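Attaching the record inline, Q. Sequence:
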Amino acid sequence: KRAFARFFNNSMKIIIVGTAFPYRGGLAAYNERLAREYVKQGHEVEILTFKLQYPAFLFPGNTQYSQELTPKDLKITRAINSVNPLNWRKVGLQIKAKAPDKVIFCYWMAFMAPCFGTIARYARSPKTKMIGLIHNMIPHEPTILDKLFPSYFVSAMDGFVAMADSVVADINCFDKKNKPKAVSPHPIYDHYGESLTKKEAAMKLGLYEQKPYILFFGFIRYYKGLDLLIEAFADERLRAFPVRLIVAGEFYENPQPYLEQIIDLKLEGLVELRTGFIPDSEVRNYFSVADLIAQPYRSATQSGVSQIAYHFEKPMLVTNVGGLAATVPDKKVGYVVEVEPQNIADALVDFYTNNRSTMMIENIKIEKQKFTWSHMTEAIDGLF
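Structure, as predicted:
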């Protein structure tokens, strides 16, 4: 009966393979939001996530698990063991028995390629399309695995959707059959609630409402360029406003060099360190208090942080790497600068000196319409 109803209503059975609750982070949020979009469109959706995602020694943070409440509106099944080949076969056969129309593999690192590639091979049937939704084909910090494993995953897919042209170029390095590919920008993360007033957000964070704030948000690794931002923030011109820098996110590497840099540049008292994992329920506090969101990355593909900024209608500063410039029109919704502290500092000074905020916010309200979740599902559904 359900199969007849799906046919009559032109709905599909879709399985999303990837990280989701009880795991935390942007990828889990992405997969859950994608599932909700397909449910809203009338499709039957299940997320298959991990029983074991990473062995503990491979995870750089404090915990892999979310402290949020279990989503009640999604079907999430913990089934996958990322290091057990017998489990991969079992999960693949379980998927095949469910006869889905689409299996969407949310891929982000080569470590998952053997697992996802094997599941796809056992799940394959004439009816089912295997789709790689690729966040990163080659990561920001490559290892030997990125040469050995991706081809195995790529060869198991029927088509791919990426969120930046640079990612498509990376896929093409492994795809020998020129399979269908589409590019659709990272959609807006709109599940963090509505904006607060700056007064409300400052009160929740224990900050001064009267101060201007720049926000660096997300986990901290070398490629994210926090050291470049700190160096730029030492520019004496910024003391006139007087702006403060908030660093909100967990260190995924040794924090000591950053702490020493802040002391050496005499920025104690000007940099607010909130360097633990920021749960979903607190994200809006940080974005609501900020004037501008800074992403001084040394390398990038696309950015979920930009899409949170779009949701909260906050101007952005990004570096001219990967796909960042494509989603942040320069001097319209923010700044696109070179990966260099002086360029970063010049943009920050321009933002406050010339009161760019109001103009950029008005442009953001228009630009954000390009980044809907329906555009992403259209790209996935339009592959074949």
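DSSP finds 16 helices and 13 strands in the chain. The mean pLDDT is 93.

More tomorrow.
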